[in-house]
Amino acid sequence: MADLLRIAVLASGRGSNLEALIAARRDGALPIEIVLVASDKAHAPALRLAEDADIPTLALDPRGYADRASFDSDLFERIGAHAPDLIVLAGFMRILDPRVLAPWIGRAINIHPSLLPKYRGLKTHERALANGDAAHGASVHFVTSELDGGPVIARVEIPVLAGDTPAMLAARLLPCEHRLLTACVGLFAQRRIALDGDRVRHDGRLLPSPLALRPDGTLAVPA
Ligand code: GRF
């Protein structure tokens, strides 16, 4: 099993994206080993999901640290001790110190509920509705020091329907997020994706635009 991609997942809350990765691993759909699930919230449901799946967990309380940099540095030192190949931010609700992040650039991804570069930050569903967008979606991108700003690997798009509320939109998007994240992690597991400067390299070629998740769960390469 030497080829399994070692993943550390950071999550602050519910953990449904983590759950999707655990399920894909269990079903044999993803050749990964989740070596750690870490959280800044001791009561995050994501930690319980990890425990139930016999995955090592770590809860660190930022209030026990002098500043953001010392929290981030301790967190990433502990993550590093598990030697992950990839760090997956899945609902991790903190901005990370660029100095701590620097050694992980290219080896850390985030899932964000908008069609990046639209709507970085919070309240993405509300903002898509307020702007009257016809389509909404989610993106998986490389993490850089810019919040939700790193090169986008892949996106999934869904239509906005008449009468949608933010909650309805979020609920319809969530299962698509799970498929998107799983498909992207699969690319890493197959060593088919890499960061090249500020571009994404897929199967050896620089992508002109992000991959798109098809309804069958596979990723389409842009023409
Ligand atoms: C997801 O919507 C993800 O895109 C965003 O935070 C949410 C996390 O949900 N970054 P969950 O904790 O994985 O259920």
Summary keywords:
single chain, alpha/beta, 223 residues, binds 5-O-phosphono-beta-D-ribofuranosylamine, 3-stranded antiparallel β-sheet
Give a written overview of the molecule.
With 223 residues, the chain is of the alpha/beta class. 30% of the residues lie in helices and 26% in strands. It has helices at 16-26, 45-52, 68-80, 98-101, 124-130, 166-189; strands spanning 5-10, 32-39, 57-59, 86-89, 108-112, 135-142, 152-159, 193-196, 199-202, 205-206, 211-213, 219-220. A 9-stranded mixed beta sheet has the order 3-2-1-4-5-6-7-11-12, covered by helices on one side. A 3-stranded antiparallel beta sheet has the order 8-9-10, with no helix packed on it. A hairpin with a 2-residue loop joins β8 (193-196) and β9 (199-202). α1 packs across α6. The model has no long low-confidence stretch (mean pLDDT 97). Bound molecules: 5-O-phosphono-beta-D-ribofuranosylamine. 5-O-phosphono-beta-D-ribofuranosylamine is lined by residues 11, 13-17, 90-91, 111-113, 138, 177. 5-O-phosphono-beta-D-ribofuranosylamine binds next to α1 and β5.
Structure at a glance:
With 223 residues, the protein is of the alpha/beta class. It is built from six helices and twelve strands.
